[in-house]
Amino acid sequence: MNKMENMSSVYDFDPITGNIPATKVEVTVSCRSVCALLGGAKSGESLCVLYTQGVETKQWREFGRTEVIDNTLNPDFVRKYILDYFFEEKQNLLGSPASRLEKSLGGIPGKKCGTIILSAEELSNCRDSATMQFCANKLDKKDFFGKSDPFMVFYRSNEDGTFTICHKTEVVKNTLNPVWQPFTIPVRALCNGDYDRTIKVEVYDWDRDGGHDFIGDFTTSYRELARGQSQFNVYEVINTKKKMKKKKYVNSGTVTLLSFSVESEFTFLDYIKGGTQINFTVAIDFTASNGNPSQSTSLHYMNPYQLNAYAMALKAVGEIIQDYDSDKMFPALGFGAKLPPDGRVSHEFPLNGNMENPYCNGIEGILEAYHQSLKTVQLYGPTNFAPVVNHVAKNVTRTKAYAASVQDGSQYFVLLIITDGVISDMAQTKEAIVNGAKLPMSIIIVGVGQAEFDAMVELDGDDIRVSSRGKLAERDIVQFVPFRDYMDRTGNHVLSMARLAKDVLAEIPDQFISYMKSRGVKPNPAPPPYTPHGLTHHHTHI
């Protein structure tokens, strides 16, 4: 049997924090030229087992397996894996162009075992939202003095035949012919993406004491509702108990669908698959408040044996986001230092010393340039953020277009600022953030050290939107995370690199979508599906 182990980490739903996955992805598996392992047989049985790795434990668990296919060297498995997809975790299959990955099968030294092909597809109906409106006619009268106060309750059916409540209409008072307000519901909530799954609707008469009287019910499906207003979408409301008692019972009224429309919500993945590039810039705080790099108490301590707080934060966050940046060349800047040879203070100097080309090759290149800078510049001050924020927003460099020149959705910019949090130019930084909110950019601030980070929390804008000179930022673009919350007591180890990266990057997809929506930018269609001709190999690990 041929077994495949997929090394992509999948984070389970966490009931404590209520982490609902960003989107669901369906993974389809095929193999080509699988070697026969049964002596003399042309081919044996093939099946594919998917393992996922826990974020904290790193233990491999079986996630699922395909059906067994007999007698072919080129199996196309029908059973698919449905994975929860998180942008902010390392799930490497999904960053590859056209979301397709081809790998050689290993396992037998010196023998070609064939090829495995994985293709990932976001479940297309997961993000659709349906808007519909209903009215009813001649519902049963339930109240002794008045008529009825009707409302409806919608349930989706589950695989095991049980029902889950998914929507309640408002109550319309004192009428047997109510017209309810239109409502919008995710298709996922209504039928979990299965258009033919039963949807049950119950009609009640509202009572103040909560003992609502059952009028009757009917069933439908998403596929039926999607036909819109027609004779097919007029439903008899049936009360089974009443029907059994009364011989001449016809129904307890009718419910009619007045209108139905569906709208697709584009997701972060749609844009990535359509070719949008995430451009990642790093800015590092070189101010004196960090402490002398030659002393072990410094946040910039140059320890030959382990990474300091700045390097750890850069590595953890950078390794996640670099998967979305195809050329892996990142501008890396420093601020708040005196530069050689004349000791002038700079708030946006290139870590590699090259003003013309501040790009470093990958996260390793940034770390190298950072360590080099520590040896050549003098930590100083003040701590000004505005210059690096404006640098990303305004500058158009020789090698890559920056945010101000890109309005068509093909590029999005993320600035990572790593700082000890003692900020000197709060007013100017707020102004820069308000201006930056109009551009395709987000800012991640990672606070290192033990300072009070009140100013960083204010810039984060989760509770109160950042404003400058009476102007509110048009959207929230800043995410702040205190690094110490992820460290052990010694301050030498990150308890969970994955959890840090997750919390730092969790807001990026929503910030990204809010920009694209506000500009009416739709994703480009994804490139055509893979064909074997002219295959190019993309480096993605699995």
Automatic annotation (TrEMBL):
GO cellular component, one term: plasma membrane
Residue runs in coiled coils: none
Keyword Coiled coil assigned: no
Single GO BP term: cellular response to calcium ion
Domain of life of the native organism: Eukaryota
Region (Disordered): 523-542
Keywords for the protein's UniProt record, in alphabetical order: Calcium, Metal-binding, Repeat
Matching PROSITE patterns: C2
SMART domains: C2 (SM00239), VWA (SM00327)
C2 domain segment(s): 97-235
Annotated family: Belongs to the copine family.
Name of the protein: Copine Vb
Protein species of origin: Hippocampus comes (Tiger tail seahorse)
